[in-house]
Amino acid sequence: MALSKVLFIFLINIYLFLTFSYAADPFVSYDFEVSYITASPLGIPQQVIAINGKFPGPIINVTTNNNVAVNVRNKLDESLLIHWSGIQQRRGSWQDGVLGTNCPIPSKWNWTYNFQVKDQIGSFFYFPSLHLQRAAGGFGGFIINNRAIIPIPFDTPYGDIVIFIGDWYTRNHTDLRKDLDDGKDLGMPDGVLINGKGPYRYNDTLVPDGIDFEKIEVHPGKTYRIRVHNVGVSTSLNFRIQSHNLLLAETEGSYTVQQNYTSLDIHVGQSYSFLLTTDQNASTDYYIVASARFVNESRWQRVTGVGILHYTNSKGNAHGSLPPAPDDQYDKTYSMNQARSIRWNVSASGARPNPQGSFRYGSINVTEIYVLKNKPSEKIGGKRRATLSGISFVNPSTPIRLADQFKVKGVYKLDFPTKPLTGPPRAETSVINGTYRGFMEIILQNNDTKMHTYHLSGYAFFVVGMDYGDWSDNSRGTYNKWDGIARSTTQVYPGAWTAILVSLDNVGIWNIRTENLDSWYLGQETYIRVVNPEATNKTELPMPDNALFCGALDKMQKPQHITSSAQSVKGKKFTWLMFVCALILIFH
């Protein structure tokens, strides 16, 4: 009997240890079935990419430091990767979901992403990163909430609303891809969607009858957090809600100095969250508008997304003209000055208790400088290509991170130039050699005639300056070295530059690219390789057990390797608990 009591106490301790071990870093799992559906967001039936039958896909809602598993079943007729835009994948570029780090998930296969949202908060989104698939959908929101012990720098909102805006084509993504392969431009989009739906019929001439539109219901006298993501192909959009101020609170994981805007330009790939107070008269509904920027507005009138903000006590439909976009056709600095006004809230706590501004980026010495210049697409070897600094990136058949792991030679070159090439452009797999724990200055010079946004995986960088003209060493005198916003996607205006600073403290292979899908597809990207010479699991996680193999390593891939890690982890925990419970019953 004494032995059974000892065993009972011992087994109870094991049970409690297992329970609290998982409670310390909660495990959150999702199942994604990615498939085609037929939808008519602009009134024309077309093929759309849905997740679990929904377009847009489900919202992932987690808390700082949660462990996240997403089991993705690919029911498309082509390969697939899901990229978690803005999720830093600390120590784990294996999970980033781009071709430099992952082999694609083949059609009819499934694969499980496993990662921790370490030391992050904020508003992000995910999307399919291959084959121009984002132009067909497949995107959804990713919210990381603060831990309960970390205060947010505003009163808890009454509700949380996610809004996806983006330009949209009625041609399938496969047709858009063929146009690019044939050297053609994509042309003007057919419209702008809000949460996967077409415009409210505010104008009988511009908007046909029968289109489903987005309607967001709110209660009067409340404050809501609205998270807005531009998930489109290439069009910058001005976002506004009729008669309401938008109090900017956060962007891509950083709390901002809180400022009111009547409208804000949101560029492709960018995310913002606003506080919206429903303090207006409820005599009618109000327009929600996302309209194209930096275009001929008379030609692009129909490329406007319109939804409805509906108070629960509203007395009528919205009517009349849309609230106007900024009148800055002849003032090219208006939008840039607006962008410069977005500042880091240095006194607010982010994912950790210490204030965001305790990281004094402006006092850190720069160790390496790269000037990345783009320009209009050009032909290389008879094919239309897009370049960065004269190099059009060619994705290797063997991902860079996998090639490093197995010491496969000749997959890439670690020779990306610090300054743009002066000779003819080339198409190759050239990668930036980043120094672990270095502090890199990157100047993004846009010599194209259209707006670009650039994204860096693995990090939040500091946007310290932007201006028109060519960047020079003297431009550093204009840098904001105190409260420049930290984010993962920044705009670069045509004929202008943007400077960013990034601390290379995250080991891995990290994608830097234009978010404009057409230019990205045509090669305007590269990777930053950050390696710890001491090679330790403390700075990079080991290759996942379920890693896919392709290219030079394709013979290592076996079909039975494709299983759900999410299910296996939960299954192991469940098995352990069942085993312990059984022993408790036996010996008690």
**The top level CATH class name of the largest domain:** Mainly Beta
The biggest sheet, with number of strands, parallel, antiparallel or mixed sense and barrel status, is: 6 strands, mixed
The helix count comes to 6
Number of strands: 33
Please identify, by name, the CATH architecture of the largest domain.
Sandwich
CATH superfamily (homologous) name of the largest domain: Cupredoxins -  blue copper proteins
Which percent bin holds the helix content?
Answer: 10-25%
- Span between termini: 9 Å
What is the spatial order of strands in the main beta sheet?
10-9-12-17-14-15
The low-confidence parts are: 1-23, 560-588
| Tally of distinct domains | 2
InterPro entries: Cu-oxidase-like_N, Cu-oxidase_2nd, Cu-oxidase_C, Cu-oxidase_fam, Cupredoxin
Domain Plastocyanin-like: 34-147, 160-313, 398-534
GO molecular function, one term: copper ion binding
Protein name: Monocopper oxidase-like protein SKU5
